[in-house]
Amino acid sequence: MFFNAVRVNGLPCKDAKDVSVDDFFLAANLDKPMDTTKSKAGSNVTLINVMKLAGLNTLSISMARIDYAPKGQNPPHTHPRATEILTVLEGSLYVGFVTSNQANRENKLFTKTLNKGDVFVFPQGLIHFQFNPSYDKPAVAIAALSSQNPGAITIANAVFGSHPPISDDVLAKAFQVDKKAMDWLQAQFWENNHN
Amino acid sequence: MFFNAVRVNGLPCKDAKDVSVDDFFLAANLDKPMDTTKSKAGSNVTLINVMKLAGLNTLSISMARIDYAPKGQNPPHTHPRATEILTVLEGSLYVGFVTSNQANRENKLFTKTLNKGDVFVFPQGLIHFQFNPSYDKPAVAIAALSSQNPGAITIANAVFGSHPPISDDVLAKAFQVDKKAMDWLQAQFWENNHN
Amino acid sequence: MFFNAVRVNGLPCKDAKDVSVDDFFLAANLDKPMDTTKSKAGSNVTLINVMKLAGLNTLSISMARIDYAPKGQNPPHTHPRATEILTVLEGSLYVGFVTSNQANRENKLFTKTLNKGDVFVFPQGLIHFQFNPSYDKPAVAIAALSSQNPGAITIANAVFGSHPPISDDVLAKAFQVDKKAMDWLQAQFWENNHN
Amino acid sequence: MFFNAVRVNGLPCKDAKDVSVDDFFLAANLDKPMDTTKSKAGSNVTLINVMKLAGLNTLSISMARIDYAPKGQNPPHTHPRATEILTVLEGSLYVGFVTSNQANRENKLFTKTLNKGDVFVFPQGLIHFQFNPSYDKPAVAIAALSSQNPGAITIANAVFGSHPPISDDVLAKAFQVDKKAMDWLQAQFWENNHN
Amino acid sequence: MFFNAVRVNGLPCKDAKDVSVDDFFLAANLDKPMDTTKSKAGSNVTLINVMKLAGLNTLSISMARIDYAPKGQNPPHTHPRATEILTVLEGSLYVGFVTSNQANRENKLFTKTLNKGDVFVFPQGLIHFQFNPSYDKPAVAIAALSSQNPGAITIANAVFGSHPPISDDVLAKAFQVDKKAMDWLQAQFWENNHN
Amino acid sequence: MFFNAVRVNGLPCKDAKDVSVDDFFLAANLDKPMDTTKSKAGSNVTLINVMKLAGLNTLSISMARIDYAPKGQNPPHTHPRATEILTVLEGSLYVGFVTSNQANRENKLFTKTLNKGDVFVFPQGLIHFQFNPSYDKPAVAIAALSSQNPGAITIANAVFGSHPPISDDVLAKAFQVDKKAMDWLQAQFWENNHN
């Protein structure tokens, strides 16, 4: 299966005697700017999770570098199995998350503009985004997540770009647009900005 | 705060000597059809969580009845803190969920048509929906969730109906529609089908 | 081994690419009345756990339908690894649980009569029962449990019907009856009302 | 409330600056033989849990000394929130536990005679007992449990000695004895062998 | 008390209606070089944990910036409640950890030299260090930890600089030096390189 | 790998039908005095963990007997994955632990002299020790730990006796002694007092 707890069990565990330092190391190049031009969203997420770094298995943490083109964004998404903490290395970011349904808490949006060195928390499972408001400068962030396999669900991709597509009977009513508009949305190319 | 683990701590705990059977009981009327006409989605979710039934505190479970009008749906949503298991009491349901981003697993849609008595699982944090395909018959389901405070994020509401709205700079690019279309979407009344 | 945490690890996990929608679906017939006449207790529990529905693995939830004959019961039992939440679909139930030993809490019995649509919680590991007080009407409940493998220990069966039997030296003193009475108890046929 | 997770939250936590070494220490006299004559079962359990030793709060462990008279026992019981590990300090013990219902695992009894220095494990939530087979020698054990508030449910006491009693409609059928026998059982004095 | 699980409960939780975006934000200045000259170790750790950023409560993650002077180090230490993942922003680091006692695993040292952009994992509770091998260049790292309150135990400080000091009867034999050497060690000023 | 969570998954789990009582039993001889003369520290730890008693797998508990020669000690060490609770069977012990770095909690030492029957708690991951202050009497303790694979890190051994040794560039500055003193320390024979 493909969610955290099962991955934890599903991934092989080496016998202690076979473990080496390289199980805990990755030459991840997180210092290198990544190409943000291939993604319509204008961002690029390099996530170091247990699939890339076996030593993370069961240790409930992972790390990512995120590059943002000018006016680029890491579009609204969730991590089904993790909270995210983020700091800005370059440029600035307009970030936000939306609370879940609860008595007197109907989808409240919390936003903040982050400058270099600021820290922000996105609680587990909530829809959140980061946007680079600059017209000319890129932005870079380092994020950490509270799972070795946090997963990511980019809302637009999962809703309009799934394989196969979600029935437009469902989506047209859910998003209150006519089927033609929905078909047009589904006809877009929904790429993934995650490495 | 407003997410599970904190709710657990945040909710008061009675001293043992003050606990009574009524802390574990709720006259929830889960046998009664609920009104599905007030929701554009044509559904009504009655969730019995720790805010309604104090004895659930820390016990990692809750239960819900879901009513679906003909052609009604419980639109694409996630539970940030719970897996859901569901069985159909009346009618039939077309259900599905979308997997998260993972190597070779780009947003795969899994769907099934459920008849009375069938059981289906929606893994934690994944976007899922239930749709009543009938033109004339209502449907009813009983669901259980693996948290006393699972939370629910209705995607369309959280993305297009948050308070305040998400900047259309963000949404227009994220959903690849022009700002006018986005403003129109945001102008809809996004109500909540959860009780 | 045979208890939850080990089952979680002990059950095979499919590689993501081999998972299909049928791993999350079961045609469980929870809408169908089950035969309550084969059980002396006059009840029948149909539990959908990870052994029947592989997709539940690690997801900490399961669901059951319970049928009760008139004057039938789900006799005193515990779930070693789960809390139970229950709602009544048909008829009514007299339910209860007994608290564990604690300062000033010596085995206090909490009971309630549940009608259709009511919800009740049985906290993890506590001895509980459901009894159908009606002379002529069956009762039906849907329950959910906070483990994919909650286990069930029917007290009378485990104490008097184990294989091999518990020494009557132990039981006679524990239950304060003479060995003859104990031997008679152990001679009963202790069947299991769980499917 | 009165079960583990809630106790954890329910118990007050001192501010770091107010903590002293005495929060982690108890003059528990676990070296002293305890009186086993007051209990019909012929045993005495001295449990050091979070109610007695505040520093255990949230640390998921507790410890007990158990004294057994000749032919005395710690009668069939469960710990709803803990596994138990036990070693024999004096004498010998005949111990056992009964597995929960599972496919092909109907209430299997596992037993062993333990001598001084032996170690045995009783998995979480399973019914277990310890019996001193000697006609003339006491026995002593040290046990540890995987919760700061494991709880204990002595089966006979909880079933036949609860306050108020469980309806004999329920018990007579559950234990397959007539109501007169059940009333006699319930008329016994069911004391608690736990300190 | 003063360790993680208790802090989680011990820290106040706001009511949902009182939460604001500032509970999830900190102007932490993680982009600014920190002064490494005040610490004999030649390093400076700026940890953003739940005491500084309340929104982290219960979310099991925290983040830190670490500055290293030329030849400076983050000396051997442990995090009693967290795994650490680290990436190098500037310069290079020689890092290592020592495994715990286990069959055939007697305190094996694993080391690696990290360059900019490399990622390394220090498993929970193991003694680890980072050392800047450069004679003239500072180094900078960003680390994340799998607890909102990971704690840090700098070995030399805790062993030789505790308040009050550990008895030199204990330390002299533990470290196999004479008491005079031990008294000299304890006479050093053991400062803390953590902010 | 070689730390707890992975061990849990890494260790094989038997199929229920293959489990026998011997998976839960060990003739551990915890009643027998162990030889404390082979260890310079003058102590001997006999730990019953999941590697010795397979039935402990996933059950989060283990048990140990510790023997102390006159003036012997269990030198400063940590358990990376467990809290320890201890009671004294013979003699007396001077015990202590050092708190982790936290605001206003710089490495505070908590100590107590324990007599027979006293109980003490060493919170997870903190450096602690036990010392037998008697010139002529041995001491014996029984301890329990909140993991089936708690691990143990003897500070002096891990820091000065690792394989290979930690660079004396690192240690000399960390411990503020010259390299010659450090080389002398590393030249000692660092044996392990754990069985």
TrEMBL record, chains A, B, C, D, E, F:
Its main location: secreted. It holds the Pfam family Cupin_1. Coiled coil: none annotated. Keywords: Apoplast, Disulfide bond, Manganese, Metal-binding, Secreted, Signal. One of its GO terms (cellular component) is apoplast. It is found in: Secreted, Extracellular space, Apoplast. Residues 28-183 form the Cupin type-1 domain. Oxalate binds at residues 74, 79, 84. SMART domains: Cupin_1. Gene3D superfamilies: Jelly Rolls. CDD domains: cupin_OxOx. InterPro entries: Cupin_1, Germin, Germin_Mn-BS, RmlC-like_jellyroll, RmlC_Cupin_sf. Mn(2+) binds at residues 77, 79, 84, 128. One of its GO terms (molecular function) is manganese ion binding. SUPFAM superfamilies: RmlC-like cupins (SSF51182). It comes from the Eukaryota. Oligomer (believed to be a pentamer but probably hexamer). Belongs to the germin family. This is Germin-like protein.
